[in-house]
Amino acid sequence: MAFLTHFPFHPIHHHSSSLFTRLLFSSKPKTLLIISALSSPQTSLSHFSTTSSLETLQDISITEQTHLQIAQEKLFIPPDTEICSEKGPRILKGSNIVLSKYARDAQVVSAEFVKSSVETEACPADGLPEFALVGRSNVGKSSLLNSIVKRKKLAMTSKKPGKTQCINHFRINDSWYLVDLPGYGYASAPNELRKDWNKFTRDYFLNRSTLVSVFLLIDASIPAKKIDLEYASWLGQNQVPMTIIFTKCDKRKKKKNGGKHPEENVQDFQDLISEYFEAVPPWIMTSSVTNQGRDEILLHMAQLRNYWLKH
Ligand code: GDP
Question: Rounded to the nearest 10 degrees, what angle do helices 262-273 and 226-237 cross at?
Answer without folding.
Answer: 50
